[in-house]
Amino acid sequence: MKLASLTVDGVRRAAAVDATDRFVSLPPKDARRNETDRSVALLPGHDRVRPAGPRAGHVGSNETDRFVALLPRHVGTVDDIVRGGTAAVDAARAAVAGAEIRPLSEVRLESPLHRFNRDILCTGWNYLDHFEESRGKREGQDPVSVPERPTFFTKGPDTVIGPTDDIAYDPDISTSWDYEAEIAMVIGRDGRSIPEEKALEHVFGFLVANDVSQRDLQRAHGGQWLKGKSLDATMPLGPWLTTADEIDDLAGLQVQCEVNGRLLQNASSGQMAFSFARIIAELSHGMTLRAGDVILTGTPSGVGNAREPQIFLRDGDVVVTRVSGLGELRNTVTLTQLTWE
After folding, report:
1. Residue 265: what are its φ and ψ, rounded to 5°?
2. Are 15 and 55 a contacting pair, CB within 8 Å?
3. pLDDT exceeding 90 applies to what percent of the chain?
4. What number of other Cβ atoms are within 10 A of residue 56's Cβ?
5. For the segment 156-177, what is each residue's pLDDT rounded down to a tens digit?
6. Span 132-142, pLDDT tens digits
C-alpha cells in the first residue's frame, strides 16, 4: 500500500497510494482514458466521527488509470496510520472499497507525513563512491579513513516539503546549494537496541527524499552538518509512503537525481555501505526509535560539490528525484527570502 497526503477542495487531507483491484470502475466516459491519465477516488467523509482536517486516503491503478481514494476520517491521517500498526493499515485497506473517482489533477500531493517526533534522522557517507568523490574537497574536514560504522546527523523537520513544492533558495544565506537523492525509511514500531536481524520488522515503509544541502554552511560550523542541512523548506519528501511489504528487493532500488533534465546521480541501493537493517540496529543502540521517525539512508556519488566544475542549484532549476518502485519528486528551486528584513 502507498500512503500519501493531498489537498481536496482547499483542505489538506492525508491519503494513501496503491495498486489494487478493490476500487470501483470508472464511468464509461472515463474508461477511454489513455495510459497517462490519472484519477482520484474519494470515500465518504464520516465528518461526525472526526473534525475537519487531514485525512488518509489510498491511490491505486489498473492498466489504464490511476486514482486516489480518500479514506474515511475515522481511519485518521497517514501519521495516525503509521503509528497505528497493522490494525490501522488493515483498516485503511478495507476502507478503499466503494470509492468515488476524481481526476488526480484536481488534487495536489503533499509530504505524506506532517507530524514528526523529532528531527529527521540521517545517515552520511553510506555510499562509498560518494565518500571517495568528496575526498580532499571537504575543506580540511576529511575523516582519517573510511567509516567502519554508520555516520549519523539530523536535520530540522521544517525542512520538509511535498513532492512538487518549491525548494526555497536564498543566495544571501548560502552560495552552494547541493542536491542529494536518498531513500528515506519510516519506523512503524517502537524499539531500542534492535538486533540487526529483526530491524526490518520495525520499518513501516519507504519514501523518496532529497537532502538539499548548503555546503558552505555545512563546513562553517565546526564540521557538524546540522546547520548546512536544516534550512526551511528545502527537503522534498514523498510522493507517497510505500509500505515495506510492497518492496521485493531492498538491494535493488535505483536512486536517481536529475537537474534540468541532466542525470547527475544514478546508483543502486545495493551499493550502500550499511544496509537498512544495519542502520536501524546501530542507530537504536541504547536509543529508542519511535513509530513515525524518519531516517534518511545516504546519497550516492554525483553531488554537485564534488564535480569539476562544481554544479550548484540556482533559482529556476528543476530537480527530479526518483527511486524505482517508490515514485518521483519534481521540485523547482525558487528564490525565497529566508532571512528577516
Report:
1. -130, 135
2. yes
3. 62
4. 32
5. 999 999 999 999 999 999 999 9
6. 776 655 555 56
CA dihedral of 228, 177, 157, 254, whole degrees rounded to 10: -110
**Phi/psi at 267 (nearest 5 deg)?**
-150, 165
pLDDT of 9: 67
Residue owning grid cell 492498466: 63
The CATH code of domain 120-335 reads: 3.90.850.10
Span 219-276, pLDDT tens digits: 888 777 899 999 999 999 999 999 999 999 999 999 999 999 999 999 999 999 999 9
> Which of helix, strand or coil describes residue 38?
coil
Burial of 151 (0-12, 13-18, 19+ CB in 10 A): middle
- 218 in helix, strand or coil? helix
Query: Which DSSP category does 127 fall into?
Result: B
The label of the residue with cell 474508461 reads: 31
Q: What is the largest CA-CA distance in the chain?
A: 65
- For 260-295, letters b (16+ CB in 10 Å) and e give eeeebbebebebbbbbbbbbbbbbbeeeebebbbbb
Q: Where are the domains of the chain?
A: 2-110, 120-335
Which of 181, 137, 175 shows the shortest CA–CA distance to 305? 137
What is d(CA 317, CA 260) in angstroms, rounded to the nearest whole number? 6
C-alpha angle 73/74/79, rounded to 5°? Answer: 80
How far does CA 319 lie from the centroid of its chain? 14
pLDDT at 11 over 80: no
Please report the pLDDT score of residue 49 as a whole number: 31
